[in-house]
Amino acid sequence: MEPNFKRELPGLLRKSGLIGTEAGKTENLAEMGRRYAFIVNASQEFMTLINRDYRYEAVNEAYCRAHNREREAFIGRTVEEIWGRQEYDNDIAPYLEACFQNRTAHREGWFEFSGQGLRYYKVSYYPYRNDRATVTHAVVVTHDMTEQKLAEEALRTSEAHLRSMLDSAAGFAIYRLAYNANDPYLLTPIFVSPSVKDLLGVHPTEFTSETFFSNIHPEDRARVKAANEKAFETNRFDVICRYDNQSKGGWIWIHAISTGVRDADNRVTHVNGILVDITEKQQAVETLKAKEAALQNQARDLKEMNVALNVLLGKREQDQTDLEERVSENIKQLVYPYLDKLGQGRLDGAQKALVDIVRTNLNDIASTFSRQLSSKFYGFSPTELKVADLVRQGCKTKDIAELLGISFKTVESHREKIRKKLGIRNAKINLRSHLLLIK
């Protein structure tokens, strides 16, 4: 502090409690003054002493640094000279006048100091009274609150964003309930998002744990109650249930999740939770289950049909076998005797050959050879079937041409086609030998 302020120093020391009345008589006043000045100058707050003429009598070092000036630039000068008339009249004079009227005054705002830039400060004006209780000075203390102000503004912005999200929430609601250790089932709502009105059909102020549990589907209550009891052990409640929301026409599906919040002593103080409408998802799951069940039924029906078809096919094959056996037996009993008598008659060579061919073909009818060659596996035409049959019996190309009434080249062409369909066209395999292997 400045030397010209020493006349006020004893009173200030007594007011501040640094010395008592008796101590002031015995202590070295200069030493106490230095200590007092050190305390004031060590402070990061801006401190000034202004007399009734509105002139600076003392300023601390922090105030000088803020203005980027020496102390001599302030002492003896008026506040108006330092700050300018407009700022003095509008922002400073009213508070100094209140202070000199023996009232403490405060103001906050953004101020710009040449050595600090634009920052947010709280300025407090304290009336200083002498031993006669007369206000002689104003002690002005300026506290830098920029970080606190920015943090508050960031918090307000964050709260505004959160409030906006909660107000526009759809399909879910969040809540915070106060936990009562004396009655764990009594949870008092602290906060409930507005979306609970659309979700559950109740106003946020009407939402309680009791109203929630009372509207759960009767078939789900036991399961939800068990989950709630378990939550006392696990500190987590997680359940899916049906909830009666009359505003939506009846039962909806809700996924409820909540967690206990514990204090430093590990005691539960609050419960934070979220409720999510999963009706569409649950309906989709139910629809999928129904489709899966239908597919399983269809698969079972198809399996049963397949078994029935296999039985029918087996019956058809057996009937075909029985028919073939009857045809074969009838040929042996009703046709072969006459062929035998015909072969014993007076026949020339060509006629006997025809009789032999008839007998062979009848034998083939009773066998599977003709059916094999004419099946879709080989795909023989009727003429190719006749040629293949005669080759199998050992007839030469010339004989086959005469018996069938076709040209030699036509028989050769049929033989080539037969080899191709049998897959032996370029193989060195005897055609008759191969045909004899077909059963």
Features:
alpha+beta, Beta-Lactamase, Arc Repressor Mutant, subunit A, five-stranded antiparallel beta sheet, 18 helices, 10 strands
Protein architecture, described:
- There is one protein chain.
- The chain is α+β, with helices and mostly antiparallel strands.
- The protein has three domains: 43-150, PAS domain (Beta-Lactamase); 169-277, PAS domain (Beta-Lactamase); 336-436, Arc Repressor Mutant, subunit A (Orthogonal Bundle).
- Helix content is 53%, strand content 20%.
- The protein contains 18 helices and ten strands.
- A hairpin with a 7-residue loop joins strand 6 and strand 7 (187-192).
- Helix 12 (336-343) packs antiparallel against helix 13 and helix 16 (397-404) crosses helix 17.
- The chain is elongated.
- The model is unreliable at 1-7 and 16-21 (pLDDT under 50).
